[in-house]
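Batch job 17 of 40 flagged for manual review because the log was empty.
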Amino acid sequence: MAGPTGGSGPDLAGSDKVNMGFIAAIVAVATIGGLLFGYDSGAVNGTQAGLTAAFNLDADGLGFTVGSLLIGCAFGAFFAGRLADVIGRRTVMIVAALLFLFGALIQGFTGDHTLFVAARFAAGMAVGAASVLSPLYISEVAPANIRGRMSTVQQVMIITGLTAAFLVNYFLAKTAGSSLGHIAGTEAWRWMYLAQAVPAAVFLVALFFIPESPRYLIGRGKIDAARAVLTKLFGAEAAERKVGEISATFSKDHRPSFADIAAKGILFRPIVWAGIMLATFQQFVGINVIFYYGETLWKLAGVSESVALERNILSGAVSIAAVLAALAVIDKIGRKPLLVIGSVGMAVSLAAMTWAFMGAGHDAAGNLALTPTTGMVALVAANLYVIFFNFSWGPVMWVMLGEMFPNQMRGSALAIAGLAQWGANYLVVQSFPRMADGLGLGGTYALYTAAAVVSIFLVRSFIQETKGKELEEMTG
């Protein structure tokens, strides 16, 4: 499988000229998109009873309403990846910020289901755009030997957003008595969406204070503008050298296009297939069942709404700790070892969850009920599963998608990988309610266990290490 070439470029991060304060500020702004990505993905977790009651939804209708965000994500990731090469990384993020803002307001206020789904689709486009553009943008401004840590901040913010949504949901539901209760005349579940408008507005304003990606600027022939950004990032001497190195990686006869990722006989170049594999298996292990349906999952396991929301908060807290651990080691031990460790850990913890739910009984009302022993096994295994995911596949997949492709094809390759990622995400989320009914939680988690086992062999066979490599060294 084609990948990065051997060797590494100059250690820009070790230079006194590197403006780490400026880089940190850029990363902070870019990753607000990750915060909104996480919040929008997690907000629905506590709103499902409200959605069902307000719009009279059955299981399929609820699945579609929840999943409409993910359909938007697939479109957003695809078009953002391509538009990033046409109008710029920052410009597309500004459009995404507007979609976040209006999507939150409409979802919180509308009483029309069609309009709600349309707003959720628009918000999904913003999530999809942020998911691919934040790591892409960060990878294009950060020095190679700290690029993994800088890009991992995106996942920290995603999980922070998820956890913030869980906390907001919990306290709003507690204040109102339940998610169906009222605060200031409006149902609590609607406030869960409206709360997102504040960080969305902050994101929109902050984006006007960061520069465009220098690699995009060079790809569009704007050499002087790129040199100015690189000088502010790395100093004049390093900037002049980087302009030459980056320019050499772009085709002289055409600007970046989808033709750059095509290959005869196999549709895409091998490196693009590797990205698709990473993107889809990150979802096939079932992680977003925990994030999107966590409350429903624990209710199926026989606990109350309040306890279910508390367990969501616990999952969010351990997720943040796991991502911070990944941030500390990703540039030391590399991306591929983290992926393998995560796959093994997820396979074992998912197997334990499968065992716990396979042995579950039912109470007098017919609800699923775990014994104290199996309940504890399920709780511990679920949190271990979340830890292993967020120590590995959670951050590493996005880091690698932002850095593994050559400059000439990065936007187009990310469009395809992002489409695959969110398509897989939608498939998993849309199928979960029916799978839980038909196969039970035990059978459903057995399938996720199998995917985790398969991912071990796929990573070992098809993924090349990118640690410490300059983006200009990536080949496809």
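Reviewer: the log was empty due to a logging misconfiguration, but the result itself is present. The longest strand covers residues 182-183. Unflagging and moving on to job 18.
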